[in-house]
Amino acid sequence: MQDTGSLQDAYRALLDAAATVAGALDPSPAPPDGEWNADEILAHVSLVGAATIAAVADIAAGAHTTYDNRIALDAWTIRHTISHAGGNAGLRDRIQGQAAALCALTAGAALSDTELDTRVPVLLLSHDTLLVDEPMALRDIVTGLTRAELPGHTKQLLALLPERAMTEGRR
Question: Which residue range forms the structural domain that includes residue 60?
């Protein structure tokens, strides 16, 4: 059994940041050179969420699985995901649904501790840098999403806000 409170909180913070950025006066803040805009960040998060749900569902179904984030970094796939989701609002809705699904799959009796401890071959890249290339427990994949992936992209979204909007958002 895995506590999903932290996962829910991480998704909530990300979605709040995404809504704040979407509601800012500048509808499409320009990211720093080499970084993603808000829609690209959300599409990436959606693709990572889908991959995580797939890995969790595979383990629950007794199937062998892998976890590889390269598709979530592919520019064409990101643009395709934005288009299919219908843009920013659709991406936020998709991520909200994925959060609910992932929390439901990893909470309570949906998966046993043995299943959560199943080691999954993992390949994780970030900015063309290899982060992980080794088996990890499924629970550690979900914990990584909670502690690193979602908070990192929350900060990335908030960095897109004009300075005035960030100051007002802190009040």
Answer: 5-170
